[in-house]
Amino acid sequence: MDSTLTSAVSGLLAQSSAISNVSTNLANSSTNGYKAVTTNFNDLVEGAAGGSATTVYSGVAASTRQNVTFQGAISSGTESTDLAIDGNGMFAVSNGAGGTATYYTRDGAFNPDNSGNLQLVGTNYYLQGYPTDATGKATSSTLQTVNVGNLGTSASATTSYSLSANLPEGQQSAIYSQSYTNFDTNTTQTVNYSYSKVSTDSSGNTTYQLAINDSNSSATLTDDDGTTSTAGQPLVYDVVVDGSGNISSVTNAATGQTTSASPSLPTITPSDSLSGIAPPSSWSTLGSSAAISSSMSVYDSLGTQQTLPVTWTPEGDNQWLMTVNSPTNASGASSGTLLDSTGAAVSSYSYQVSFNSDGSLGSVTGLPTSTGGTAPMAGTNEPAITASWNDQAANSSISLNLGTPGSSGGGGLTQLNSGDSTVDVKNISQDGIPFGTIKGVSMNDSGELIATYTNDTSRPIYKIPVATFANENGLTAMSSQIYATSQASGTATLNAAGTNGAGDIKGDSLEASTTDTTTEFSNMISAQQAYSASSQAISTDKQDFTTLMQSVS
């Protein structure tokens, strides 16, 4: 009878544990990421009675079994920072935003706290991840608390600018030229005069940039002050003309020297000519300007849009003078200055752009400036627009891609007969980003937390790892769906989402509890019946014991 009582009591205890597990599961049927537990029963054996082979059973023991690896249903969350794991693994969290110990959870209901740290709702646990740069590359090998409150603004200075456009070939014939005889070949060559308007002051004085070029690309030009050009490159002058059309001054743009013949245009002597060529009799002799104006829009490091006015002046013989002028802001006011190859401030600098006979790009050369430098170059045939901004310390250097010399396709500059007199822009691309403020965050399946800004840009800010274990069911359960490692679970391995057996991370989603209420109610009925049966066994054993005692007395 003692054995009967012991077995019955063990049954009560075991079924009480089962009912407790069922009650806990039902209570957490709406708990995000909760993993329902089950109750396992094991018989208890005392041994053989009286040395015989008969086995004596002494009851039952109950144990709780975790089912951490069981996948819960994934549904849409209510916040963009809600996360769910589809597959194996857990999120890494710390106890407190500055906690050093790492714990784990399947609950992905994270919200920013008052500092922007992603906190598991209703707990003191915080999501951990690896911060990244704008390309998604981790900048630290140490887990850090994920923060979405210090992302500030988004802006990036333009460092690369590509232009695909056509310059009208017909403009080459719209410039003034003077003929001379090449004494080496006894052929006729020309000196070409082309100009573009730079500015007009309040007194009506207009400044022009005048380029004088030789049709013989191997010839140099020397003016009456002794300035000699590089072969194939023009002599460039800043010419000021008053409101009546009279020349007020002529300044060599490369040397800063005002010509001794001022206010007249210079006499030019080609290296392949026996005599100098007298200048045009007046400014009006040059006729109408064939120059074309355009502009480049770029961004400084603060994300402010800056405009660089550009003038394209045909020089004849398939050559153009590309002049870049000091930047202006959205209202047209000066916002900075240009820097030449020596770093000296200049109001403008020019490039000679040559084309092949088929209209493809030939070469791009930086021309001298009055400071002793040249228009800056990033590489062969690649200008580098360098500017200093009025409102910030950081300068900008912009690599300008005008295409591949000799290539007739694939973008860049061409010179074809378009039938008009404008720059026909085909495509512009640049890597600058305008100013924008944080709009929200989202998660992709690769575990990257993406920040989106009001300027329609986005960038990864954290990589959220997925922790896997040799035995996930061996983790030690704590409150709030938190788990700690144990000897049974093994240490955590941090993986990129979707790799090495780790599950994918779903943004704006939550994993539901794995509790099946129908199953749990069925288990509860079974446990209640077994509990009642054990209770009845105790009552019966008590009656038998009473009867025995009465018979003995």
DSSP strand (E) fraction? 35-45%
The number of E-state strands comes to 40
**How would you sum up the global shape?**
rod-shaped
The helix fraction, in percent, is: 10-25%
The CATH architecture of the largest domain can be given as Sandwich
What's the number of domains? 4
Mean pLDDT value: 87
- CATH overall fold name of the largest domain: Tick-borne Encephalitis virus Glycoprotein, domain 1
- Give the C-level CATH assignment of the largest domain: Mainly Beta
Q: What's the end-to-end separation, in Å?
A: 18 Å
Number of helices: 2
The SS-based structural class is mainly beta
Radius of gyration: 42 Å
Q: Uncertain spans, ≥5 residues at pLDDT below 50?
A: none
CATH homologous superfamily descriptor of the largest domain: Flagellar hook protein FlgE
Q: What's the main sheet like?
A: 10 strands, antiparallel
Describe the structure concisely for a colleague.
This protein has 553 residues and is mainly beta. It is built from two helices and 40 strands. Helix 1 (2-27) runs antiparallel to helix 2.
